[in-house]
Amino acid sequence: MFTPNGDGINDVFLINNTALETLHYEIYNRWGTKIFETNSMDERWDGHTTSGSECKEGIYFVILTAKGWDDVDYNQTGFIQLLK
Known about the structure:
single chain; Immunoglobulin-like; four-stranded antiparallel beta sheet
C-alpha cells in the first residue's frame, strides 16, 4: 500500500533493489491497461501514469522481472493498493 498524497510518508512505490543487478517492472490498472513501466533501479512510481495523469485510488497489478547479483532470475506478480 502506498499513499501519494505529498505528506512525505509512503508517497512512492519502490522495490528494494539492493540485491538486484537488473530490474524491470510494469504496473497495470484493473482493466489491464499498462500505466507505468521502468527498467531503472532509481525510478519509483508516484501514482501517475507515464503521461502524467493522476491515478485513481484502487488496486493495481505489478509484474516484476529481475536478476540478482547471485545470478538468480526473479519473476513475480502481485498487487499494490493506492490510497489517497
